[in-house]
Amino acid sequence: xxxxxxxxxxxxxxxxFDFVAEGxxxxxxxxxxxxxxxxxxxxxxxxxxxxxxxxxxxxxxxxDLNLLIxxxxxxxxxxxxxxxxxxxxxxxxGKTRPDTGKVFFGQNIDLTRMNETQVAEIGIGRxxxxxxxxxEHSVFQNLELAMKMDKxxxxxxxxxxxxxxxxxxxxxxxxxxxADQKTLTAKLLSHGQKQWLEIGMLLMSxxxxxxxxxxxxxxxxxxxxxTAKLLNELAGKHSVVVVEHDMDFVRSIASMVTVxxxxxxxxxxxxxQVQNNDKVKExxxxx
Length: 287
What we know:
Helix content: 25-40%
CATH superfamily of the domain at 2-122 and 241-285: P-loop containing nucleotide triphosphate hydrolases
Mean pLDDT: 84
Shape: globular
Structural class: alpha/beta
């Protein structure tokens, strides 16, 4: 309850965060380049969304949305179809510009002034529901291609992986549980293994924040258990936001759940608190 009370205090409408500075350039700061590792989380917040609204042809897909994600937290976002979950992730990753409101990465980087490529470069990774791996390449090659390096053809042909890069690939292979499949062509992987490979590809750039969309859709129970273990292992070193519909899976990973409805936060708290919320039962879970 203390963490929930702290969150409510942080989300007070009259609360003004001093990291919002006029004239701040999200790419160069105050005359210098902001690198991924320089995101300022001294207040403990990795993602700050304040009073964000976005409309499409008069329909408010996001309506005065307020959301805080703490550094190292694993947060689950749930809600009915059309609640604004995908649009929220589009806004965070620079795909969609909000009509109003603020979206900050840490206390110093204004995401509303950045495009998708820039957002990825400063340490935010997004995994879509359908895995997008390179099917004709091996698991190892998929991770190699996901590495941050000069991708120009001539450079790639002449390049050889350093010992540090090889070690990093091996670490990620172990983490995602695909060390034994590293030479296997990605198209031969199971659906769950492809999902883990894509998460691994995101991890190759060592993002501070991971946005994961419905990771267990279509998985077996065994794959779901393995995915829960993986996401729990990522929390702490990374901040992880998971959008999911499977309530059993959400219960297995989440200490804090946010429920979206009609583009706003309907409820927030532990899984038990959310499941016992009358409004959440009415609009999403059912009685």
